[in-house]
## 1
Amino acid sequence: MEAGGLRVLRRGRRGRAAARDGRGGVTQSFIQSKETTMSVSRIPRFYKLSVEERHVELRGRLDLDDDDLRILESGWHGSLSIDAANNMVENVISTHALPLGLGLNFRVNDRDYIVPMCVEEPSVIAAASNAAKSVRDGGGFTADADPPIMIAQVQIVGVPDTNVACVEILARRAELMAACDAAIPSLVRRGGGARGIEVRTLVASSEHEPGMLVVHLLVDCQDAMGANMVNTVAESVARRLAELAGGEPGLRILSNLADRRLVRVRCLVPLHALETKNFSGERVRDGVVAASRFAELDPYRAATHNKGIMNGVDAVVLATGNDWRGVEAGAHAYAARDGRYRPLAIWRVGPGGMLQGDLEMPMVVGTVGGTTRAHPGARLVMKLLGHPGAAELGMLIASVGLASNLSALRALACEGIQRGHMSLHARSVAMNAGASGALVEQVARELSELGDVRLERAVAIMARYTATSDALADAGE
Ligand code: NDP
């Protein structure tokens, strides 16, 4: 090991030197890119580097220190001590690891991002990076975000007259908003706080049944995801609300259908960036548009269409230590908001015949609070992203979702998804069959060439390699 915790690189690739100074620092990037700014997310041939070389490359591009490198080397989840984990959740016995990779080529609102993605599914990162490169050719993603308004719900049961209760509550709007703010003084000092009160009647009171109301407290949570904050707000005013309604307080909790905190992302992809060896740009564009129409017309397809979006979304949400269950719940509830499950992103022929993609979804993520700061790996991920605010992070995450969607639709509309997917999946199958080290790539290649990526086949290939190495060992070679 060298000073600084970096391992000495045993092999330079294709003549690229492992350049280090005496302090373990890196003096030279492995990749000569025409674009040399620190923030640039185009790193051609990054995928060809070893993991150690990728660390060196990153260190050369970003302001990473030895501690950051140690976290990367020890594994993202390795950075989470058992002790810290034990303080996060209950009944801890260990920590759980997943791969962390980099989504490349992302440009959102004229800014470049190298995007850490945490995901177990092969091809998600490569596919998103590939689509982001095509989008980049059209100028990148443009995105905007609503203010970070979360909804806290207060249920009131046993309301004798729901109409009177609504009037009573809304007449005390100013008093109630002040009470909400009083529960979250530091958030108010930061510029957040109560933004509105809405009352919805769920069951109108009648002679057969008392009424049920729900009061929505709208709270600007600034850079926090905000669940705990708005739950505190709901708790603080629930009794007063029930008193005004003449009923009893019921549940007091946020809604994950955060439809006041939407992000919107658009991209325009030029035809030349869609063209493949076998398909013209027009053909790919029209195939993607037809795939989008399919999802718009059929909830069975929309579910898979949206799963493709969530491949990218969840990977970044998870990497940043955010609550992916909340984002998932919000996404699917929003997709079904008019009573029918619909795609979160649609694709059309845009200006100049380009392919235009538009995505809109709730995005409840924070860059403070929750686990985002408590997990050392998540803190490093925020650093790699350039310490974005919550709105900026949300727009980036949605862009990764749109890129993932484009990539899946493009593959489906052309060769079909299996070819690209299976060649990456082949590596997992090879590992499941017991391959390790260089054998993983070798067995995966054989499986792909055979067009038969099954465990059974991988086991047979492995048996052949094992027999060969046993024979060599017996012969003393
Ligand atoms: P926290 O309870 O950690 O609150 C946010 C913290 O961030 C506060 O302590 C706040 O400080 C601090 N903060 C620092 N800077 C800022 C800033 N610029 N803007 C806003 N806050 C700032 O987290 P959340 O309220 O965000 O809740 C998220 C957690 O809640 C997640 O772990 C999630 O899993 C969990 N959760 C999720 C639910 C769901 O249904 N999805 C339900 C319940 C919990 P200060 O106190 O000084 O204001």
Note: The chain has a mean pLDDT of 89.
## 2
Amino acid sequence: MTDLAAVKRALAAQRIETPSWAFGNSGTRFKVFAQAGVPRTPEEKIADAGMVHRFTGVAPTVALHIPWDKVGDYAALTRYAADQGVGIGAINTNVFQDDDYKLGSVTNPDPGIRRKATDHLLEAIDIMDQTGSRDLKLWFADGLNYPGQDDLRNRQDRLAAALRETYDRLGAHQRMLLEYKLFEPAFYATDVPDWGTSYAHCVELGERAVVCIDTGHHAPGTNIEFIVAFLLRQKKLGAFDFNSRFYADDDLMAGAADPFQLFRIMNEIIRGDALDPAYGINFMLDQCHNIEAKIPAIIRSVMNVQEASAKALLVDRDALATAQNNGDVLEANSILMDAYNTDVRPLLAEVRADAGLDPDPIAAYRRSGYQEKIVAERVGGTQAGWGA
Ligand code: RM4
Ligand code: MN
């Protein structure tokens, strides 16, 4: 039997981090459809993140992306965030949008460009010192389009050197999250293509280097929950970038395309006792909202993660272990599916009501008048994002 009170406590304590860039404009390679009311400044993105937290109660931090969120005074930005009811979360680096990085950033054959890229990573740690952030998130677009274009092994050495220098600059309470991605923008070879490569670099670096799993960054059909189980066992799972994909790195709302996969991932998290924020996993969203309203889409994504987590918490672990140990294949599978098929929306409504929140965060957001307010106020200036 599952202890419902414990399930509710775990759900109330759950934390999900929103990405500042999800509040800005985004699009495909073909078109960015600008939306009215979109933030123009880091402050406005943070204000929107504050609304997601206000209505969900479980999204108290917002990740920044540098230089997209570059400001003159990060201590002031952190105070501003606190006024909006949120803290600054992970600092994301950007070594993929400068002309110099055409042939790579930290793996570039040109030592001057490698220096510039590594300096950006170090600058991000300076920012973390001012925002009080724990996590430095690294994602590299580095890779090759053609066989023979550069030396695969040398590039691994260059990557290792940059990571080492960056890791050594981290403060005692700071961590490095190393993300991987199968392909894109490079099509032939990527320098950190998979969890194994990320894991090996993290092991070499030390305890505070951990893997970030972006759910959109695998080959179709990859069993992501296996990666979760493996990395948890090795104490090397540091974070998620949640989003959904149908084909490639679609960056759709978490839990939208395959809620069953999100459940299976959260099931391994619960199995590893790793949902509690004290365990140290940063459950982040990394997604874009190209055609849907952004703030409610982010609220919806947070709710989808909550629903997958609630279902995973409801798995009858004792009964499952007994069925597994008895080799009862059908019973074990049906115990898992019973939890997945439970409608957890009433349970989450109760958790929200207990926390003094509206049981329906999206309806509450719509009633708040915030959307009308930002549409009226955010006139002029340049909207944040991929350009309009
Ligand atoms: C990358 C990767 C990173 C994110 C950027 C915007 O594909 O997922 O996590 O920072 O996109
Ligand atoms: Mn990501």
Note: Residues 21, 65, 92, 139, 179, 181, 214, 241, 249, 286 surround beta-L-rhamnopyranose (ligand 1) (CB under 6 Å).
